[in-house]
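Teaching assistant's notes for section 4

Start the section by putting this record on the projector. Ask students to predict, before seeing the second block, whether YozE family protein will look compact or extended. Collect guesses on the board.
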Amino acid sequence: MKKSFYLYVLTFRGGDWSDQKVRFAEEMFHEHNFPKQSTNFEELSTYIESFATDNLTTEAFDELWALYVEQG
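Reveal the predicted structure now:
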């Protein structure tokens, strides 16, 4: 079974803060209502669009989603 998007993105925590993927991961980690079990693009995209912040951006999400899909 494929791991959730949340678990995949957590692997970016602790990196270089200049990387938007790292900032997204840190912000996501502190967002208690983030859909942690989801592997569904629509569910995650809707959440990000609804609760976007300076670090939880749609641009970072799109980049991370592409990487998530690539890693299969």
